[in-house]
Design goal:
By secondary structure, the chain is mainly beta. It is built from no helices and 11 strands.
């Protein structure tokens, strides 16, 4: 994979047209589960969607994933390996329910680890049975 060295213009339905700076673009050598052919993603951090961030595919901007810091959900979360918080940021992919407040879950079983020093990302699958691919975010969430 090649390093991103210049801004990239992105046009998406959700976020309109914007310029992604190289430090916000992450290279996923193996892609994400189910999206192995996509390797370049931009991390969007917006006050309007906080605490959620969005991981948007640079080459197919209609594909995007809401992301959340796993410690917002579980203070004792273990992302599968020792994380260097100075350069690595674990995130979990969130699935939004079809109705407001219903069915919002997080994939705690397969976190995404973003390396902010190398601008790379990897999705790992945890072997622990403690975590679920559809952990409810809200009480009584079904």
């Amino acid at each position: 994979m090649t390093e991103i060295s210049q801004n990239i213009l992105i046009r998406s339905r959700q976020f309109g047209e914007f310029t992604a700076e190289p430090h916000n673009i992450f290279i996923f050598e193996d892609g994400l589960l189910g999206f192995e052919d996509l390797h370049r993603f931009v991390l969007i951090n917006s006050d309007q969607t906080a605490p959620f961030k969005w991981l948007l595919a640079v080459d197919e901007p209609e594909i995007g994933f809401p992301m959340l810091n796993p410690w917002f959900i579980d203070l004792d979360y273990k992302p599968g390996k020792k994380i260097d918080p100075a350069i690595e940021a674990p995130m979990v992919i969130v699935t939004l329910g079809s109705r407001a407040g219903e069915g919002i879950t997080a994939n705690m079983k397969a976190p995404v680890i973003l390396n902010t020093e190398k601008n790379t990302g990897v999705q790992v699958i945890l072997t622990s049975e403690k975590y679920s691919t559809n952990q409810p975010l809200l009480p009584n969430n079904k």
